[in-house]
Amino acid sequence: MMGETFSFVEDVQIYDTDAQGVVHYSGYYRFFTDAMHEFVKSKGYKFPFIDDKHWFVVLESNAKYLNSAKVGDTLDINLTVNSVSKKIIRFDFDIKRGQEQICQGYVLHICIDKDKWKSADIPDNILNELTK
Amino acid sequence: MMGETFSFVEDVQIYDTDAQGVVHYSGYYRFFTDAMHEFVKSKGYKFPFIDDKHWFVVLESNAKYLNSAKVGDTLDINLTVNSVSKKIIRFDFDIKRGQEQICQGYVLHICIDKDKWKSADIPDNILNELTK
Amino acid sequence: MMGETFSFVEDVQIYDTDAQGVVHYSGYYRFFTDAMHEFVKSKGYKFPFIDDKHWFVVLESNAKYLNSAKVGDTLDINLTVNSVSKKIIRFDFDIKRGQEQICQGYVLHICIDKDKWKSADIPDNILNELTK
Amino acid sequence: MMGETFSFVEDVQIYDTDAQGVVHYSGYYRFFTDAMHEFVKSKGYKFPFIDDKHWFVVLESNAKYLNSAKVGDTLDINLTVNSVSKKIIRFDFDIKRGQEQICQGYVLHICIDKDKWKSADIPDNILNELTK
Which of B19, B16, B57, B21 shows the shortest CA–CA distance to B36? Predict the structure, then answer.
């Protein structure tokens, strides 16, 4: 299933930066997480505790840094979501400052049954909502 | 000078929490910083780099934890700002979830001349804007 | 009971700093937490999950910033521990770089029964170990 | 040039974890950074400010999560370093808890001339020291 694109706007905060004067490399994962939270919330679910039984657990994270961003910069975080399988969902991120590309990346989540801490199918209605 | 109250709404993110299942004690300082950023931005300045010459540097931080908050909770961060002297400004925070008090705290900043890294008077127009 | 002093050495990492070029104000709470972990571990307990039933939960945190620290600086974190009551324990911190004072602060923890999420007496043997 | 393997031991701290009870996905980048700092320091340089003129700036970061880790776990962070070009250096990480693999990942750094904020050759002696 091909997913939709969701856009989210966020300012760079002083704690996102480091002594190089720009956003620290792991700081972009905050923007990724915030965008996933807002997207899943817009669908009526909680993140990463999707429902009482199912959690999203991260399998892989990746970020490529194309240009640096500074405190006070306003960033557009564009998220695309796709299902990899019935259990795995992939979020792709493209962060821009105006027309300029800042960071691209992705996060893979696997759905687990939280009580068994074992992989589980994402419930059909949730998968449809997230990837329609 | 007595300062005004500024309110800011923010969701608890998964990275704010720890294995106790609730927001980690240092996580509240992110809410404090975000509220200071939004308040100063609403006045037309950047935070903590107020202008080309003046920076706010933290002198003291404090937080008291009254009730715990969980991922997905929506918090109201209420900020009050007061000048302590011509050089020092104090932000007080009162974080609520609905009517329930979650956290109270404060952050003291001193203004410095960034080139000399020495304390400096907050420019009058900025101090007036922030504490009127 | 008067507590002992425990010393712990740690380097400032790039992620502890922000775009002001020095350690971010909330970064010092990492040093506080690391020192509490090492101290409690040296007594044979885990932190903050003291045993199967008892957790330490933070009531208050405070830090005063006396001098700034830079990436690569080696800091001495000196911790003193005292019992405030049978339920509450206080950790005081004094961070130095050589003879120079960098940061002073404290963290108050209350002991809870984790299953009830209610305050509980710190078990006598643990309180004695931590504050002897 | 084939690089050497450097090993570093670190405990999981409470702030590394989130409400899923295990280390948060971005928390592993702290272990990566700490290992790079210790490795570069063991060679007599600072990280990421290699010398007065040259900085390492992150081009890409990646982590795969194989098993979860909990607060108090002692992890072995194994680092391998290789030069990709005269300007780019790659650090590979393999994190284990005993014999169990927890996380694998890499961080690519490009060397810049900090005054021009432009890519620059890593000085020969430094590249040799880091990748011999």
Answer: B57
Using the beta-carbon criterion (under 8 Å), do C61 and B63 form an inter-chain contact? Answer: yes
Report, in angstroms and rounded to the nearest whole number, the Rg of chain D calculated over CA atoms. 15
A104 close to A95: Cβ distance less than 8 angstroms? yes
Of D19, C113, D74, D26, which Cα lies nearest the Cα of B19?
D19
How far is the alpha carbon of C72 from chain D, nearest alpha carbon, in Å? 7
The string of DSSP codes covering chain D is -PPPEEEEEEEPPGGGB-TTSSB-GGGHHHHHHHHHHHHHHHTT--SS--SSSEEEEEEEEEEEE-S---TT-EEEEEEEEEESSSSEEEEEEEEEETTEEEEEEEEEEEEEETTTTEE-PPPHHHHHHHH-
Q: Distance (Å, rounded) from C-alpha B76 to C-alpha B10? A: 7
**Count of structural domains, chain A:** 1
SS3 B32: helix
Q: For residue D109, give every residue at least 6 positions away whose Cβ sits within 8 Å of its Cβ, in sequence order, or none.
A: D48, D56, D57, D58, D59, D88, D89, D90, D91
Peptide bond before residue C123 is cis, with ω within 30 degrees of 0: no
- Please tell me the distance from the alpha carbon of residue B52 to that of residue D36, in angstroms, as a whole number: 34
Is C113 at the interface with chain A, CB within 8 A? no
How far is residue D132's CA from residue D125's CA, in Å, rounded to a whole number?
Answer: 10
CA C7/CA B92 separation, integer angstroms: 32
Sort B40 into a burial class: Cβ within 10 Å, 0-12 / 13-18 / 19+.
buried
> If you ran DSSP here, which 8-state letter would residue A49 be given?
B
pLDDT digit string (tens) for chain A, length 132 residues: 456 789 999 999 999 999 999 999 999 999 999 999 999 999 999 999 999 999 999 999 999 999 999 999 999 999 999 999 999 999 999 999 999 999 999 999 999 999 999 999 999 999 999 987
Q: Is D71 on the interface with C (CB under 8 A)?
A: yes
Which chain B residue's Cα is nearest to D17? B18
Q: Give Cα C70 to chain centroid, integer Å.
A: 21
Which pLDDT band, with edges at 50, 70 and 90, does B4 fall under? confident
Is residue D11 less than 8 Å (CB to CB) from chain C? yes
Convert chain C into a string of H (helix), E (strand) and C (coil): CCCCEEEEEEECCHHHECCCCCECHHHHHHHHHHHHHHHHHHCCCCCCECCCCEEEEEEEEEEEECCCCCCCCEEEEEEEEEECCCCEEEEEEEEEECCEEEEEEEEEEEEEECCCCEECCCCHHHHHHHHC
Q: State the complex-level ipTM.
A: 0.95
Say yes or no: D22 contacts chain B, CB-CB below 8 A.
Answer: yes
The CA-atom distances, in angstroms, between B84 and each of B41, D41, D51 are 21, 42, 41
CATH classification of the domain holding B119: 3.10.129.10
Q: Which two tokens stand for residue B126?
A: 């900025």
Range of the domain at B43: 5-131
pTM recorded for the entire structure? 0.96
